[in-house]
Amino acid sequence: MSLHIVLYQPEIPPNTGNIARTCVATNVSLHLIHPLGFDIDTKTARRAGMDYWEHAALYHYDSLEALFAKYPEATFYFVETGGNKVYTDVDCSDICENIFFVFGNESSGLPKDLLAENVDKILTIPMGEITRSLNLSNAVAILIYEALRQRDYAGL
After folding, report:
1. I need a surface site. Which of 61, 74, 81, 153 has the fewest CB within 10 A?
2. How are beta strands 85-86 and 58-61 bridged, if at all?
3. Where are the domains of the chain?
């Protein structure tokens, strides 16, 4: 299984840096959809990723459409609060399948039209009513480790 994390127009450098570090630690690819809300070479982004940036399988795209065109046979899931499936409902055990987990930016999430077109592919992480959402880097880590758990942490 090839596991991929996609960040749609991320805005907060420490979140992206922490996610990059998690991706390096777990052998997961990271795909960034532009525009970014920061320069990836900023001190804050570098500090969060520490010295791991050079080891990241990091890819940049001008749009989600460009990513979808590059991986037409892949399975895409969209992680959003209020999704109709819990993230643990996804079977990540197929070793031949490219699975992409797509996360929206910190302030507005994913585009509403994209979500409307993919209602059956929206995943959510259960949480109490008081919290609006989880921190982006925490949510990514939860999805990565669940997918890896289903594969008995193969490759780690």
Report:
1. 153
2. unpaired
3. 2-150
Q: What is the pLDDT of residues 11-39, one digit of tens each?
A: 988 888 889 999 999 999 999 999 988 77
Q: Which fold has domain 2-150?
A: Alpha/beta knot (3.40.1280)
Query: Does residue 49 register a pLDDT over 60?
Result: no
DSSP the chain: -EEEEEEES---HHHHHHHHHHHHHHT-EEEEESSPSS-TTSHHHHHHHGGGGGGS-EEEES-HHHHHHH-TTSEEEEE-TT-SEEGGGS----TT-EEEEEE-BTTTBS-HHHHHHTGGGEEE----SS-S---HHHHHHHHHHHHHHHTTTTT-
